[in-house]
Amino acid sequence: MQEISFDEALDLIRSKDQRYERDAYLFVREALDYTQKTIARGGRGRPRHVTGQELLAGIRDYALEQFGPMAATVLEHWGIRSCSDFGEIVFNMVEIGLLAKTPEDSRADFAEGYDFFEAFQKPFLPSGKQRRSSTARASSGV
Asked: Which of 102, 68, 63, 67 is nearest to 83 (CA)?
């Protein structure tokens, strides 16, 4: 069987699932590399398998580092509105052979991630607005 390039694999994925922009897949791949390097620095220096929760934390950190206060806007432009979307992207890549998974890995690992407001917008609000925004969101049921 002939290996296909990353670009060809993305074309295949997007021919079946057009919910996410091509750049979303590139970003998740870069965020995985970022996460593996971060974990390797804290461990024995070797990349290892990353859990869904570890990848979500790495995605958050990488998005904030790359896009700052625009992170939520960029992600939404790509079709990403929740941590479950990251899981869909990861498993689309797994199904085509771009990423590997263990038997314990599942889309559900991404379902209980973080709130996008808390992760990508709140860090950039003035401290007085952070409290009010959290209270307003809680009282409005968001």
From this structure: 63
Does residue 16 belong to any structural domain of this protein?
A: yes
Domain total in the chain? 1
Structure tokens at 21: 């922009």
CB 28 within 8 A of CB 86: yes
Show the 3-state SS of 46-92.
CCCCCCHHHHHHHHHHHHHHHHHHHHHHHHHHCCCCCHHHHHHHHHH
Q: What is the pLDDT of residues 30-42, one digit of tens each?
A: 999 999 999 887 6
pLDDT tens for 8-32 read 999 999 999 999 999 999 999 999 9
Instruction: Report if residue 1 sits inside a domain.
Output: no
- Domain residues for the domain of 27 are 6-140
